[in-house]
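ok so for the tutorial part 2 we go from a plain amino acid sequence to predicted structure tokens. step 1 is just haveing the sequence, like this:
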Amino acid sequence: CLSRSDGPLNLPAAFPASLSVLSWNGRHLGHSLKEACDLKLSFLAGLLRSQRPHVVFLQEIGLRIEYLRDWAARHGYRFTHSAPLHGQGVAVLTEWKFTNKFGIVVDEVLRGAVLSVRATRQLSFVAVNVWFSPAGAAARRPQYTVVANYLRGHRHAAALLGGDHNRVDTTKGRYLLPNQGREGRWAPPDRADSATFARVLAGPCSL
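step 2 — the prediction. this is what the tokens look like for a chain of 207 residues:
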């Protein structure tokens, strides 16, 4: 959670007292196989019913997403998607009552990788859904910079950063499942990448 002091247009920089944000890498949520889609959508619907989050961050949702807008509306949410030229894309669901109350808009910060939920009424806050590249630290560093620049542009808003970072900060922070004959194992932390993330984001915000 990243905090600032005062909001633009005299709006206080703060989150709603009961803000609830859920994040899920619903890999291939838009799968070409209907059975796979139905199973994951059933799981997500259960989370929406039981948790009633105001905001849902989704990553790697797949390419077949044309039905998700109507599906989200039936469950009381607005669906916003950012599709990359190649890859899976990210999306956010925002509960309609929450959306209307705070005048929520969704900014596409980085196509296919970063979407931000931004309040324009009552309070000043942003909630940023990121998908940082799994291709290594060198691929993630430019993404860190893009997010940092966005946050600088909204330095007077309270901010929350969530999603799929694909970065290992701590020992036993990420477990790699068995794959192609290799045993399951804990991924080693990348201290240099963690330090880069902290340094780049420390300018526009407090970690």
